[in-house]
């Protein structure tokens, strides 16, 4: 009887953990937690580059949940997994004075109809760490972005989506001008009079952003993540964690339309002044 109760309790605990922490369904092995060298990333994802040397401090600042220690290979592999990528981010060990936070679960630039979770997160991190960079590239939805904060202040932020410019804050940098993107001069696509682009997604034709431009900006401002495996550093462990629910896009409440006012005719005004018989 006791043995049966122990087995039942063990199964209940297993299913409880599996439900609460989906990532742990594939139980960690020695291969997952063995320190290793950096693994390249950068295509079809988002990432932060934070000037810091303590990954646990970054984890705390991000407010991640269900955090576990993992190596580079497992962390990067997880954020590219179709089931895990919408909900988890990988926080890397320090490399060259920076810590990378990688994953599509990071908030992304949005239009005026949504709450800007991304901008708020960057401001919060910049106040705490001083230097923060942000990058986003995803060809399926035609969204590309880069931003840089220094000494806690916004220096430059640009984001381009299918409908045009989302961010264009701060002065255009020399590194951006080398990209030859005509849309950098736009504040709003509709106001610019620029023609809609006609090209295959992600090709960067006709001076519009594509993935290679995001990678180029990351390289110009610090480190090309697709070449991270070439950086000399010691093996290390990072963290994988569940992104906070408030990072998800939230639509702003619709504002009520002002009541319509009608102009009364002279005859209607005179009728209102007549005494009631």
Query: What structural category characterises the helix and strand content?
Result: alpha+beta
Spatial extent as radius of gyration: 25 Å
Which regions contain 5 or more consecutive residues with pLDDT less than 50? 1-22, 189-204
Characterize the largest beta sheet: strand count, sense, and whether it forms a barrel. 9 strands, antiparallel
**How much of the residues is beta strand, in percent?**
15-25%
- How far apart are the first and last residues' alpha carbons, in Å? 96 Å
Percentage of residues in helical conformation = 25-40%
Overall shape: it is: globular
Number of strands: 9
- One letter per element, helices H and strands E, the order comes to HHEHEHEEHEEEEHHHEH
Mean pLDDT: 82
Oligomer: single chain
Name the strands of the widest sheet in spatial order: 2-9-3-4-1-5-6-7-8
- Treating each run of at least 4 consecutive H or I residues as one helix, how many helices? 9
Folded structure, characterized:
The structure is a single chain. The chain has a nine-stranded antiparallel sheet with strand order 2-9-3-4-1-5-6-7-8, sandwiched between helices. It has nine helices and nine strands. By secondary structure, the protein is an alpha+beta fold. The radius of gyration is 25 Å and the shape is globular. The chain has helices at 2-20, 30-33, 55-62, 72-79, 117-129, 174-177, 189-192, 211-221, 266-273; strands at residues 45-51, 65-71, 88-91, 98-102, 132-138, 143-150, 153-161, 164-169, 237-242.
């Amino acid at each position: 009887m006791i043995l049966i109760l122990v087995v039942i309790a063990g199964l209940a605990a297993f299913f409880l953990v599996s439900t609460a922490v989906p990532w742990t369904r594939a139980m960690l092995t020695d291969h997952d937690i063995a320190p290793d060298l950096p693994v390249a990333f950068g295509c079809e994802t988002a990432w932060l580059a934070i000037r810091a040397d303590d990954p646990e401090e970054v984890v705390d600042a991000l407010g991640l949940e269900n955090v576990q220690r993992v190596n580079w290979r497992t962390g990067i592999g997880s954020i590219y997994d179709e089931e895990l990528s919408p909900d988890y981010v990988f926080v890397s060990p320090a490399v060259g004075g920076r810590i990378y936070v990688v994953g599509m679960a990071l908030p992304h630039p949005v239009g005026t109809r949504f709450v800007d979770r991304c901008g708020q997160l960057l401001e919060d991190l910049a106040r705490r760490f001083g230097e923060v960079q942000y990058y986003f590239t995803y060809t399926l939805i035609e969204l590309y972005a880069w931003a840089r904060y220094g000494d806690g202040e916004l220096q430059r932020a640009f984001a381009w989506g299918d409908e045009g410019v989302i961010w264009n804050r701060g002065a255009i940098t020399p590194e951006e001008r080398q990209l030859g993107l005509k849309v950098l001069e736009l504040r709003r696509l509709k106001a610019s009079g620029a023609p809609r682009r006609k090209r295959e997604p992600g090709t960067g034709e006709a001076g519009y952003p594509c993935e290679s431009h995001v990678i180029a900006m990351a390289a110009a401002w610090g480190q090309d993540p697709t070449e991270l495996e070439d950086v000399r550093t010691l093996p290390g462990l990072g963290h994988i964690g569940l992104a906070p629910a408030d990072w998800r896009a939230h639509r702003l409440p619709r504002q009520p339309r002002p009541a319509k006012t009608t102009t009364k005719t002279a005859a209607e005004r005179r009728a209102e002044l007549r005494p009631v018989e």
